[in-house]
Amino acid sequence: MNKIVVFCGSSLGFNPIYKEAAISLGNYFAENKIGLVYGGGKIGMMGVLSSTILAQKGEVIGVIPKLLEKEEVLHTGVEEMIVCKTMSERKVIMSKLVDGYITLPGGFGTLDELFEALTLGQLHIEQKPIGLLNVNGFFDAILLQLDKMVEEGYVKQDNRNLLIVEASVTELMKKMHQYTAPKISPVIQKVVS
After folding, report:
1. Is 14 helix (H, G, I), strand (E, B) or coil?
2. Which are the contacts of 34, defined by CB distance < 8 A and separation ≥ 6?
3. Which of 3.40.50.450, 3.90.640.90, 3.30.750.24, 3.30.559.10 is the CATH number of 3-192?
4. Most-buried pick from 44, 54, 86, 143 (CB within 10 A)?
5. Could you tell me where the DSSP H helices lie in 40-165?
6. SS percent in the chain: helix, strand, coil, step 5
7. Are 107 and 12 in contact (CB under 8 A)?
8. pLDDT top residue among 175 and 193
9. pLDDT at 71
10. pLDDT tens digit string along 4-20?
């Protein structure tokens, strides 16, 4: 994988373990020459992750909507900053630039981006690995909800399995590198094509 988008918070949260996870992921990207595509901020998890990679001369591309350009603190150290019109356009641009997705702890925006990536995978619009770094059990309740959705017939188990979940950066990246997209059924292939 050459480039991965990372969805994460513009806050650091209360527990320093999340910041450490962002640093660990940033170090992995820099050491393995993986380019980061992210939300373009200098604050919170986004700032820690991007600054960790930039400090090691790694590749970082920011994508930020115009409406957040003034409200968020733009990371001035990022040489390639793409300013777009809307949040929706931001996600489209990000998906076109990357080979996979990773989600770190964050809030509503982070979950929105994660679920859009899963929806694209479910519909076979994309066939990229989607990773969730479940540090400190941060996403446990959401994972239980996904299982409940399968149990109640709202999500197929194959689609639930699109989400690669690990608590360690090394294990997550190992599984993402080994990922093979599910085969598209002929019926879906005709609809998607």
Report:
1. coil
2. 1, 2, 3, 4, 28, 58
3. 3.40.50.450
4. 44
5. 44-54, 66-69, 87-97, 108-122, 140-151, 157-160
6. 50, 20, 35
7. no
8. 175
9. 53
10. 999 999 999 999 999 99
